């Protein structure tokens, strides 16, 4: 039996078919699903889904890419009440993401005139740099607020990190021993995973480990301790082989677990048992 520790059941891809999606997961041996909120609306929907389905739990938080949305930071004031719901098992997904900074939108853009590009680009680059700084600082503020809330409520955190490794660890380091985090959709090196583990945190693997060109994360999946990782889909994204490029769903978590078992030279049953113990230890399924 498996837990899909990171799904987005509130996303439009699953509208009107949740019962069938959850049933297919159960048939595939995925008996529990954790649906993850990313903003006010998503969190409310995730909790509502968890209320309706006994084997679904929710995680609530503000995604770093959404911190500049209208009313997003105000949502952090509402988050404590929502996080106290008995079906909420962690805070997140929260963290730092520099991959989607405003300045990235300028990269590779073509202009009809080189002179025009230089003239306008200078001003736009300056503006984008200011916007980058605002987004980074707001992400840090939101991340710290959610880490503080997790400590207050005795919950752990689901962490999103992309192209912001040093800053993410710097912000997380003061919370060592106060909470644990899982770096979801982990694609880093064995050395990075070991750095996380030394701080008491976990990693989680998606269907990416089944991709032929994913040699780095495959090495990491082989290297982590048996109690140092979990399995997720991040559905509707990142469907594993042979469904790559199609809509991912929680049932596909078993394919990721099977690939990890192959990489580690273990049985699928062993991987399922180990990740289940880790999920029970990390998430607060029976906290209230």
Describe this structure in words.
44% of the residues lie in helices and 15% in strands. It has 9 helices and 8 strands. 43% of the residues are buried. Mean pLDDT is 93; it is low at 108-119.
Structure described in brief:
With 288 residues, this protein is an alpha/beta fold. The chain is 44% helix and 15% strand.
Helices and strands in order:
Blueprint (H helix, E strand, L loop, with lengths): L1 E6 L10 H10 L2 E7 L3 H13 L3 E5 L11 H12 L4 E10 L16 H40 L3 E6 L2 H8 L8 E3 L6 H9 L3 E4 L9 H9 L5 E3 L21 H12 L3 H15 L6
Parallel strand pairs: 1-2, 2-3, 3-4, 4-5, 5-6, 6-7, 7-8
Helix pairs in contact: 2-3, 3-4, 8-9
* Main β sheet profile: 8 strands, parallel
Structural class: alpha/beta
- State the CATH class: Alpha Beta
Summed up, the helix count is 9
Q: Give the neighbour order of strands across the main sheet.
A: 1-2-3-4-5-6-7-8
Helix amount: 40-55%
The number of distinct structural domains comes to 1
List keywords for this structure.
288 residues; alpha/beta; TIM Barrel; 8-stranded parallel beta sheet; 9 helices
């Amino acid at each position: 039996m498996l837990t899909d520790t990171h799904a987005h059941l509130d996303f439009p891809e699953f509208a009107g078919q949740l019962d069938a999606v959850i049933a297919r997961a159960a048939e595939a041996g995925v008996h529990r699903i954790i649906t993850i909120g990313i903003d006010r609306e998503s969190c409310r929907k995730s909790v509502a889904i968890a209320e309706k389905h006994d084997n679904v739990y929710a995680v609530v938080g503000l995604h770093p890419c959404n911190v500049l949305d209208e009313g997003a930071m105000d949502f952090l004031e509402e988050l404590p009440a929502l996080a106290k719901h008995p079906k909420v098992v962690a805070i997140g997904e929260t963290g730092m993401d520099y991959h989607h900074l405003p300045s990235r939108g300028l990269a590779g853009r073509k202009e009809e005139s080189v002179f025009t590009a230089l003239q306008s680009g200078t001003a736009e680059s300056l503006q984008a740099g200011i916007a980058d700084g605002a987004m980074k600082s707001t992400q840090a503020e939101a991340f710290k607020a959610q880490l503080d809330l997790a400590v207050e409520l005795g919950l752990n955190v689901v962490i999103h990190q992309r192209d912001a490794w040093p800053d993410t660890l710097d912000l997380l380091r003061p919370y060592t021993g106060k909470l644990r985090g899982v770096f979801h959709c982990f694609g880093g090196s064995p050395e990075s995973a070991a750095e996380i583990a030394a701080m008491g945190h976990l990693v989680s693997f998606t269907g990416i480990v089944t991709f032929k060109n994913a040699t780095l994360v495959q090495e990491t999946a082989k290297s982590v301790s048996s109690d140092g990782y979990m399995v997720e889909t991040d559905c509707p994204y990142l469907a594993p082989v042979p469904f790559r490029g199609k809509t991912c769903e929680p049932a596909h978590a078993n394919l990721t677990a099977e690939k990890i078992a192959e990489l580690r030279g273990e049985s699928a049953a062993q991987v399922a048992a180990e990740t289940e113990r880790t999920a029970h230890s990390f998430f607060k399924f029976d906290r209230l």
